[in-house]
């Protein structure tokens, strides 16, 4: 059965949201959900190849954190479960879908695929196939922001970085080394743990000596928070505080979001290890349904408005597939292009 925890801070009951903000958060989460559902359809129809890891169920984490930042200005570093992070960061759905199809119009020119989405324009620092790879990259991005501001006198260099990773990654060396460095130098970074309870087929509680990951922050003298990762308003509240601290030069924050993936580890995973009771308990906490209910209860939205958003996003996703299907394949003569830096 699901092991529940007491969430000490940042509950939706204490979080506030305007109508405009609430509808935007809902739209961003719906985009993530509908996009991933379409990816599954395309994969099983043989239109998409390789490893594809979907984000269904975890949308409140991506939306809650990234929309508390400045998308397109602040930096986002992801994992192999990166489609929705890219979408929240502002990478157009058509370019993400084209990348998954291996097309030249993809955000990584068809060279990255599902696990390696990158967009310099949107400050999307990439998805990484091996766990923990992105943490040093994100830490480096945070360092350069601080260095430009303090050592080079660039007052405009106040960007914050968010590094996303899973619970299994927090047992790896990069996690500890980078948190130590970030704390020492007070880097402007959020370390966001998407604790979905499972590292492929290994249950979180069986793999770590301290299951409450947020408590590991205390070793480095940085704030650590546990938050309901199925509640976008709660995630957004803790992220807003962490972003404000980072931008003010007060250093990093570790945020553990308790969430759950609604699909198997990847689309090749039959998902037979998790119990039916566990999955059903988490399905009942669907973050999209939770936000929709909140908006309706607080008279911030009507059913018609929510349905209009869903219809709009369905059109965006369908257009993305059409764009991807009609886009050209990379030219074989460009095989070595983008491998090395090119002089203008």
TrEMBL record:
Names of required cofactors: thiamine diphosphate
Coiled-coil boundaries: none
Stored InterPro entries: DH_E1, PDH_E1_Alpha_Subunit, Pyrv_DH_E1_asu_subgrp-y, THDP-binding
Residue span, Dehydrogenase E1 component domain: 28-333
EC assignment: 1.2.4.1
Database matches in CDD domains: TPP_E1_PDC_ADC_BCADC
Keywords: Oxidoreductase, Pyruvate, Thiamine pyrophosphate
KW Oxidoreductase (keyword) present: yes
Classification via Gene3D superfamilies: 3.40.50.970
Keyword Oxidoreductase: yes
Catalytic activity field: N(6)-[(R)-lipoyl]-L-lysyl-[protein] + pyruvate + H(+) = N(6)-[(R)-S(8)-acetyldihydrolipoyl]-L-lysyl-[protein] + CO2
NCBIfam families referenced in this protein's UniProt entry, alphabetically: PDH_E1_alph_y
Role noted for this protein: The pyruvate dehydrogenase complex catalyzes the overall conversion of pyruvate to acetyl-CoA and CO(2).
Subunit structure as annotated in this protein's UniProt entry: Heterodimer of an alpha and a beta chain.
Name of the molecule in the record: Pyruvate dehydrogenase E1 component subunit alpha
Source organism: Stenomitos frigidus AS-A4
């Amino acid at each position: 059965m699901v092991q529940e925890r007491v969430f000490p801070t940042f509950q939706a009951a204490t979080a506030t949201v305007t109508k405009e903000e609430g509808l935007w958060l809902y739209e961003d989460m719906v985009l993530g959900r509908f996009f991933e559902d379409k990816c599954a359809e395309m994969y099983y129809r043989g239109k998409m190849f390789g490893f594809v890891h979907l984000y269904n169920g975890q949308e409140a984490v991506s939306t809650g954190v990234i929309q508390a930042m400045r998308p397109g200005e602040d930096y986002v570093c992801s994992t192999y479960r990166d489609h929705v992070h890219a979408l929240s960061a502002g990478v157009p759905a058509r370019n993400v879908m084209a990348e998954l199809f291996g097309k030249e119009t993809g955000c990584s020119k068809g060279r990255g695929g599902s696990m390696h989405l990158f967009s310099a324009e949107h400050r999307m620092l990439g998805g990484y196939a091996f766990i923990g790879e992105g943490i040093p990259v994100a830490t480096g991005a945070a360092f350069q922001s601080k260095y430009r501001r303090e050592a080079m006198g660039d007052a405009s260099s106040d960007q914050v970085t968010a590094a996303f990773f899973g619970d299994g990654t927090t047992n790896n060396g990069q996690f500890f080394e980078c948190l130590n460095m970030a704390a020492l130098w007070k880097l402007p970074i959020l370390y966001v743990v998407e604790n979905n309870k499972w590292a492929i087929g290994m249950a979180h509680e069986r793999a770590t000596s301290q299951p409450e990951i947020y408590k590991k922050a205390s070793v480095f003298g940085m704030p650590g928070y546990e938050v309901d990762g199925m509640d976008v308003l709660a995630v957004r509240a803790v992220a807003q505080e962490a972003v404000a601290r980072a931008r003010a030069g007060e250093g990093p924050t570790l945020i553990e979001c308790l969430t759950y993936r609604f699909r198997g580890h990847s689309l090749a995973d039959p998902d037979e290890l998790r119990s039916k009771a566990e999955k059903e308990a988490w399905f009942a906490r669907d973050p999209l349904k939770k936000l929709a209910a909140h908006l309706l209860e607080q008279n911030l939205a009507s059913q018609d408005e929510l349905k209009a958003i869903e219809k709009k996003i369905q059109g965006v996703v369908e257009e993305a597939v059409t764009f991807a299907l009609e886009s050209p394949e990379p030219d074989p003569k460009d095989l070595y292009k983008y491998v090395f830096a090119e002089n203008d």
